[in-house]
Amino acid sequence: MTLQYEKKIQVDHLTKVFLKNRERVMALEDINFSIRDGEFVCILGPSGCGKTTLLRILAGLEKPSSGDYNIEVNGSERPLQSMVFQEQGVIPWMTVEENVALGLRMRHAPKKLIKERTNLYLEKVGLTKYKNLFPKELSGGMKQRVSIARAFANDPEILLMDEPFAALDEQNKFILQEELLSIWEETKKTVIFITHSIDEAILLSDRIFLMTSQPGTIKEEVKIDLPRPRQMTQVRSDPNTADVFLKIWNHLQDEVQESRNQS
Ligand SMILES: Nc1ncnc2c1ncn2[C@@H]1O[C@H](COP(=O)(O)OP(=O)(O)OP(=O)(O)O)[C@@H](O)[C@H]1O
C-alpha cells in the first residue's frame, strides 16, 4: 500500500527584495518547496540569509516581491498560522491562562471551547498549577511553554516557529524540545521551525532545508529518517547522525565563509 500525503504548503519562485539605505537587497531568491500535511521541517542557514523573512511571508506579515505561496485550508474556523518567536511572545499584563487563551479569545471561540483547549494545553506543557501567575513571575523556559501552549491551543493550519529555544540554557532547551515533539506527535501539525542548532534540527525534523547566504536560496534538503519518538540522547548516540551533522556543518561553514567574503 502506498501512503498518499496531502500537500499543506506550496511555495513557488518566491523572492523578496528590501530597500536598505536606498539600495536593493535581495533577501530571498527563487524559493521553491512543498511541505506535506503533518511534516516537521527545520530551516538552517547563516545569519541574514532570509529565514525570518521567509517565515514572516508565510505568516502574512510581509509580502513577497514576486512568486507565490499557498497554505491548504482544512477547517474554516481555524486561523491560517500561529507564530512562536524567540522572545516577547507573552503579554506581560495577562496571566499564564489568559496568555494561552489569547488566540482563541481574539477569534471569539465559544467560552467552553476556550476553557477546554486552554486547560488541555496548560496540562500538556506542565503549567496548570502556574496558570494564575504573570509572565514576570516565570522563568524563560516557562514563558516559552506559554507561547507553545497558546500556538497549539489556537489550532492553526500551520505552526511557524522562529528560534523559539535560542535564549534558553542547554538543559531547558532539551526538555522543551522533547515536550514540543511529544505535543507535535499527538497533534500532527505542520511545523516550520527556524534554528541555528544542527543538533536541534536533526532531533526535530523530517526534513531540513539548508539555505545559502544572501541572497537566500534553498541549496539542499536533508531527509532525517530516524525513528520516532526521538530523544536527544538517542539521536546523539546514533552513528548515522554523525555523518548528517558533518554534512550540515560543512555546508554552514561554506556559507558563513561566503557571506564573509561578500561583506
Ligand atoms: N524590513 C526590512 N528592511 C530592510 N531590510 C530587511 C528587512 N528585514 C530584513 N531585511 C534584510 O534581509 C536580510 C534577511 O534578514 P532575515 O532577518 O530574514 O535573516 P535571518 O536569516 O533570519 O537572520 P538571523 O539568522 O540573523 O536571524 C538581511 O540582510 C536583513 O538585513
UniProtKB/TrEMBL annotation:
<dbReference type="InterPro" id="IPR027417">
    <property type="entry name" value="P-loop_NTPase"/>
</dbReference>
<dbReference type="InterPro" id="IPR050166">
    <property type="entry name" value="ABC_transporter_ATP-bind"/>
</dbReference>
<dbReference type="GO" id="GO:0016887">
    <property type="term" value="F:ATP hydrolysis activity"/>
</dbReference>
<keyword id="KW-0813">Transport</keyword>
<keyword id="KW-0067">ATP-binding</keyword>
<dbReference type="GO" id="GO:0005524">
    <property type="term" value="F:ATP binding"/>
</dbReference>
<protein>
    <submittedName>
        <fullName>NitT/TauT family transport system ATP-binding protein</fullName>
    </submittedName>
</protein>
<dbReference type="InterPro" id="IPR003439">
    <property type="entry name" value="ABC_transporter-like_ATP-bd"/>
</dbReference>
<dbReference type="Pfam" id="PF00005">
    <property type="entry name" value="ABC_tran"/>
</dbReference>
<keyword id="KW-0547">Nucleotide-binding</keyword>
<dbReference type="InterPro" id="IPR017871">
    <property type="entry name" value="ABC_transporter-like_CS"/>
</dbReference>
<feature type="domain" description="ABC transporter">
    <location>
        <begin position="9"/>
        <end position="238"/>
    </location>
</feature>
<keyword id="KW-1278">Translocase</keyword>
<dbReference type="InterPro" id="IPR003593">
    <property type="entry name" value="AAA+_ATPase"/>
</dbReference>
